[in-house]
Amino acid sequence: MSDEIVLVYVTCPDADVAASLARTLVQERRAACGNIIPGLRSIYAWQGEIHDDPEVLLLLKTRRSEVGNLADRVVALHPYDVPEVVAVPVVAGHGAYLDWVRAHVDVRSPS
After folding, report:
1. What total number of domains does the chain contain?
2. What is the pLDDT of residue 106?
3. pLDDT at 3
C-alpha cells in the first residue's frame, strides 16, 4: 500500500493559499509536488445557503499511505473550516515519474 500513488485534490480560495500549502507539504515530504490550477468556479451548499465562488485547485501527488498525514496538515493550515481533501488512485503512469513521486514522499514524516 505504501507504494501506491494517489492524486489529492484540495480547493483553495486563491493561488497564494494554494502555493503556501504546496510549499509546506513538499518541504515536509508529505507530497512530491503540487500543481496550482486557476479558474475554478465552485457551487456548493454551506450553512444553509448555496454559494458560487471562484477558487483554485491544488493537485498534489503523494503515496496512498501518506494521505492521512497530508490531510491532517491541510486541515491545520487551510483557511476553510472544512477544506476539501480528496484522494484519487493513480492506476497507471510513466514508471520513472511514479518512482520519483515515491522517492520524494517520506512515509515517516512527522504528524
Report:
1. 1
2. 82
3. 84
